[in-house]
Amino acid sequence: MRNWPDFITIKEVGPRDGLQNEKKFLSTEDKVTWINMLSNTGIKEIEYSSFVNPKWIPALADAKEVGKRIKRNPSVLYSALVPNMKGLENALEAGIDGASVFMSASESHNLKNINKSIDKTYPVLKEVIDTANEEGKKVTGYVSTVFDCPYEGRVSPEQVLRVCDQLLEDGVDEISLGDTIGSAVPSQVQALLDEIVTRLPKEKIIMHFHDTRGMAIANIMTSLQFGITRFDTSIGGLGGCPYAPGAAGNVATNDVLYLLNGLGIYTGIDEQKLQEASIYIQNKLGKKLPSRSVAFIEGTA
Amino acid sequence: MRNWPDFITIKEVGPRDGLQNEKKFLSTEDKVTWINMLSNTGIKEIEYSSFVNPKWIPALADAKEVGKRIKRNPSVLYSALVPNMKGLENALEAGIDGASVFMSASESHNLKNINKSIDKTYPVLKEVIDTANEEGKKVTGYVSTVFDCPYEGRVSPEQVLRVCDQLLEDGVDEISLGDTIGSAVPSQVQALLDEIVTRLPKEKIIMHFHDTRGMAIANIMTSLQFGITRFDTSIGGLGGCPYAPGAAGNVATNDVLYLLNGLGIYTGIDEQKLQEASIYIQNKLGKKLPSRSVAFIEGTA
Asked: Which of A225, B70, B108, B152 is deepest in the core (most CB within 10 A)?
């Protein structure tokens, strides 16, 4: 119970997973300024946008422009979400170090989200994975609804492992396991990681929690106890859930940093700079972000 | 890591610890209606008010009136905060099943909060404890700042144990250990409970977390792993912190219930009735409460 890793890598997904759920459109210039601030916090990886069809995610319609204009910090890996070959082409033109493909562990969520069955999704992703690999880009496979599906309910670890196995076989470098609706409690995390860490290499596993029900920090604590060293987080807890007003989005980078610093786990992230980037985005969006820690920032919205 | 108790007892402290930090004064009638709703949720214990001098906590100046007017559910234990003999007399007149005395584990917080040194606090409490015991009331000893003190920083488990030992010797039936400023992370909880559970009977220990930094659910999870079966919580996360606008207060009863239900731990609390009481107080206070789960209630402020 007392064992956790010495070093944790945080991927900041606020500019993608956070903004895509925000109603307010942030200007390209503000996005660029903000991502540049994030680039100087010590965060090692930033998912800067999504190359999904802008019809589906208008908030990120300027992905290409953002990718071209951000100032690249050589210590940061810049990745973006890519759904298909068209998205990958745009992402490559805009500049990426990593490409993130995505699908769901549950059939109905995959159908709803990607408009294809799970089996028919693999070949689409495979083409993207192959090309991204040929281009020397890191490829991440996001697997959504790994605990609960909003349409099917509980998702079994076996279902999740099946998708992970296929994606790894198809060439992704790593898997990010998403608690998409933020419903999991630590016993579910235990049940899944029991299977995952005995079957897959730990260093390829990223945990991606949403704080919808306030369980994310406890779930991260549980993951740490399994030796998981990588987490997706969103500054200020940006994101929310369009279906639940007031609900939190991704777990807040700030709250995770508070936990990790308290546990004596190294992240390389400068808390002060992170808070400055939090204030910036909070003021730009004109609303209080869900992170508990952001309440401690002076001059907030 | 997989072991936790089958049954947990929640003490609802919203009407006291929650309201005492709210700026808006809730009318006596609204308090009574709300406490009556709480009495029907299945919660086993409610701290209904504080008999501290109203000069210090004007929000609860009507403690006596509230105590006299609430409809007592025989399955619920009704307790109140009492600082001294005057407070206890009033509380006894108003009707209590339990009296809660309080002090801090850190000298400076105790001085600031009670205006006495720790050593000079014991005799004041002893008189209250003795009288409450003679009257057949359960006596709880709240110990504040058991992890961190806002003036002294880290508080050692030894300091905490010293205060607990003295209070138990002086006749309290149980101890509630308070993370007053909501700063603790699970490693601190582990360090304290390592000492506590080997030296004191577990069933006399209540953990009292604030969710100021979003760590409370992880800290409760950690406490469960030590076999702790009793927690103080506040409906909706009511309370906040007067020094940090937007900060959360006591850990939300709703979020704790979500965790415990998810873990398969029995509490006896009816989630629907709890949500109704949450909506009621949220609408009366006219603001969104910090609980993540309250966002899921329809018809909220």
From this structure: B70
Chosen for mutation from B209, B213, B228, B241 (greatest number of chain A CBs closer than 10 Å) is B213
Hey, what domains does chain A have and what are their CATH numbers? 9-296 (3.20.20.70)
**A286 lies within 8 A of chain B by CB:** no
Report how many Cβ contacts below 8 Å link chain A to chain B.
109
Nearest to A179 by CA among A198, A160, A164: A160
Closest residue in B to A299 (Cα) is: B245
Query: Hey, what are A74's tokens?
Result: 């050589």
CB A253 within 8 A of CB A10: yes
> How many alpha carbons lie under 13 Å from residue B153 in its C-beta half-sphere?
0
Rounded to a whole number of angstroms, the distance from the CA of A247 to the nearest CA of chain B is: 5
Q: Is the Cβ pair B214, A292 closer than 8 Å? A: yes
Low-confidence spans in chain A with pLDDT less than 70: 1-2, 240-248, 294-301
CB contact under 8 A, A218 and B221: yes
Instruction: Kindly report the number of other CB atoms within 10 A of residue B72's CB atom.
Output: 14
Q: Does B186 touch chain A (CB under 8 A)?
A: yes
Per-residue tens of pLDDT for chain B, all 301 residues: 568 999 999 999 999 999 988 878 899 999 999 999 999 999 999 999 999 999 888 899 999 999 999 999 999 999 999 999 999 999 999 999 999 999 999 999 999 989 999 999 999 999 999 999 999 999 999 999 999 999 999 999 999 999 999 999 999 999 999 999 999 999 999 999 999 999 999 999 999 999 999 999 999 999 999 999 999 999 999 986 555 555 568 999 999 999 999 999 999 999 999 999 999 999 999 888 888 776 555 444 3
**Coil, strand or helix: which one is A35?**
helix
Q: Rounded to an integer, what distance in angstroms lies between the CA atom of residue B112 and that of residue A119?
A: 65
Percent helix, strand and coil across chain B, each rounded to 5? 45, 20, 35
Say what the ipTM of the complex is.
0.93
Buried b / exposed e along A139-164 (16+ C-beta atoms within 10 A):
bbbbbbbbbbbeeeeebebebbbebb
DSSP 8-state code for residue A17: I
Which 3-state string (H, E, C) describes B53-96? CCCCCHHHCCHHHHHHHCCCCCCCEEEEECCCHHHHHHHHHHCC
Residues on chain A touching B259 (C-beta within 8 angstroms): 185-186, 215, 218
Residues 204-233 of chain A whose Cβ lies under 8 A from any Cβ of chain B: 211-215, 217-218, 220-222, 225
How many whole angstroms separate alpha carbon B208 and alpha carbon B206? 6
pLDDT in tens, B87-119: 999 999 999 999 999 999 999 999 998 999 999
Q: List the alpha helices (DSSP H) in chain B.
A: 28-39, 63-69, 85-94, 107-114, 118-134, 157-169, 186-199, 216-225, 253-263, 271-285
DSSP for A217-261 reads HHHHHHHHHTT--EEEEBGGGTT-BTTBTT---BPBHHHHHHHHH
